[in-house]
Amino acid sequence: MFGQKMQAIVLAAGKSSRFQTGKSKLVETICGQEMILFSTNLLSTLNIPTTIVLGYQKEQIQEIINKKHGGAVNFIKQQEQHGTGHAVACTQNKWDREHILIMNGDMPLVRQDIIIDLYKKHIEQDAAISFVTSCCTGSNHSYGRVIEDGKTIEIIEAKEFHGQKTEVCIINAGIYLVKKEFLQDSINEIEKSETTKEFYLTDLVKIASDQGLTICTVNAPFDQIRGINNLQELWAAEQVKRAELIKHWMEKGVRFGIAHTVHLELDIEIGPGSSIGCSVHINKGSRIGKNCIIQQNSIIENSILESNVMVHPNSIINNSYISSGASIGPFAYIRENTIIKEQAQVGNFVEVKNTILGSGSKAKHLSYLGNATIGKNVNIGAGTITCNFNGVSKNKTIIEDNVFIGSNNTIVAPVIIQEDSFTAAGSTITENVPKEALAISRTRQINKENYGPKLKKRYEQTERDTKESFIAAAKVKEASTEL
Amino acid sequence: MFGQKMQAIVLAAGKSSRFQTGKSKLVETICGQEMILFSTNLLSTLNIPTTIVLGYQKEQIQEIINKKHGGAVNFIKQQEQHGTGHAVACTQNKWDREHILIMNGDMPLVRQDIIIDLYKKHIEQDAAISFVTSCCTGSNHSYGRVIEDGKTIEIIEAKEFHGQKTEVCIINAGIYLVKKEFLQDSINEIEKSETTKEFYLTDLVKIASDQGLTICTVNAPFDQIRGINNLQELWAAEQVKRAELIKHWMEKGVRFGIAHTVHLELDIEIGPGSSIGCSVHINKGSRIGKNCIIQQNSIIENSILESNVMVHPNSIINNSYISSGASIGPFAYIRENTIIKEQAQVGNFVEVKNTILGSGSKAKHLSYLGNATIGKNVNIGAGTITCNFNGVSKNKTIIEDNVFIGSNNTIVAPVIIQEDSFTAAGSTITENVPKEALAISRTRQINKENYGPKLKKRYEQTERDTKESFIAAAKVKEASTEL
Amino acid sequence: MFGQKMQAIVLAAGKSSRFQTGKSKLVETICGQEMILFSTNLLSTLNIPTTIVLGYQKEQIQEIINKKHGGAVNFIKQQEQHGTGHAVACTQNKWDREHILIMNGDMPLVRQDIIIDLYKKHIEQDAAISFVTSCCTGSNHSYGRVIEDGKTIEIIEAKEFHGQKTEVCIINAGIYLVKKEFLQDSINEIEKSETTKEFYLTDLVKIASDQGLTICTVNAPFDQIRGINNLQELWAAEQVKRAELIKHWMEKGVRFGIAHTVHLELDIEIGPGSSIGCSVHINKGSRIGKNCIIQQNSIIENSILESNVMVHPNSIINNSYISSGASIGPFAYIRENTIIKEQAQVGNFVEVKNTILGSGSKAKHLSYLGNATIGKNVNIGAGTITCNFNGVSKNKTIIEDNVFIGSNNTIVAPVIIQEDSFTAAGSTITENVPKEALAISRTRQINKENYGPKLKKRYEQTERDTKESFIAAAKVKEASTEL
Question: What is the Cα–Cα distance from A211 to A139, expressed in whole angstroms?
Answer without folding.
Answer: 34
